[in-house]
């Protein structure tokens, strides 16, 4: 593989469904061209940032590197449409708006806030492992367990009715799986906009209800939030809901399922977890590093600058490759080895800096609860078919993980 071929992984959704291809390509780029200009006829040009140190430096430099107007990689047509998308979330915001809006829900996701959910999350973890037992020793771990467990947690936090959970799951998969034939609503160029509008219409109803009938859930906090002395606008509130309702579960689902796939490929690591429950916490962090469910975010330079000796002009964009940074040989010992006891584990799967993931503590707690339950009850486990990964440019992991198991 030459450097030009390696750089195609960032613009090809199929590359993120092929772990060997992606990591072979990004290892070459880290060695030979760690700040690499990518030009493709369907995409506006960008610089691919593949080293851990550079991803951190750009994430820290929010005064120079902005999320707007191009927060994530998409085709030229999508870049052109961004100004017309009515929903704006934290992902599209920079200072001074971003810290103000982030503060609205921050307390709910801090360690103290998440600790209040510990018993409920443990109860849900047990429910879904019980569901595995009920399925009789064979299931699709992603479809039957991983896709639903964190969905239930985050949508309950928002206060959505359980009858609407399947709808939210389908919309999320259509949004993040727009490049995957199995998940996309259609191949029509306007399909993703239609999905966003479905989210907006749904959340308009929730906003109205919570403003008329305030409750004690996060959905009510968002609907009734005050920004600069005025009630948050409906578009911003709908964007807030959409971000939490999608990223709040889809990324965790990917990490949980991708983590199990890694354990099945490394049965000695499953044995370590089963023998030593204290390894569940670092083991979950290793799953998150290994999968890196968020594949990239982008930043745009506000002034001429230099990254690793490469000049980048004001107005040019960089792609922060989190899966590549999380396999950086300069940071991780044996980065392509899955190690549930890895310490330290300075992965950047949750991002870094001002846009560090709000749900970090919740995602870790969910993973730890589920795997503590799994390793205590599963006696044997193996693949029962070929895993399949989502074809995506943004967020993804397994979409099918067939397994066979026995349980206590």
From TrEMBL:
Keywords: Heme, Iron, Metal-binding, Monooxygenase, Oxidoreductase. The keyword Iron applies. GO terms for molecular function: cholest-4-en-3-one 26-monooxygenase activity; heme binding; iron ion binding; steroid hydroxylase activity. InterPro entries: Cyt_P450 (IPR001128), Cyt_P450_B (IPR002397), Cyt_P450_CS (IPR017972), Cyt_P450_sf (IPR036396). SUPFAM superfamilies: Cytochrome P450. One of its GO terms (biological process) is cholesterol catabolic process. It comes from the Bacteria. CDD domains: CYP142-like. Pfam families: p450 (PF00067). Gene3D superfamilies: Cytochrome P450 (1.10.630.10). Belongs to the cytochrome P450 family. This is Cytochrome P450. It comes from Frankia nepalensis.
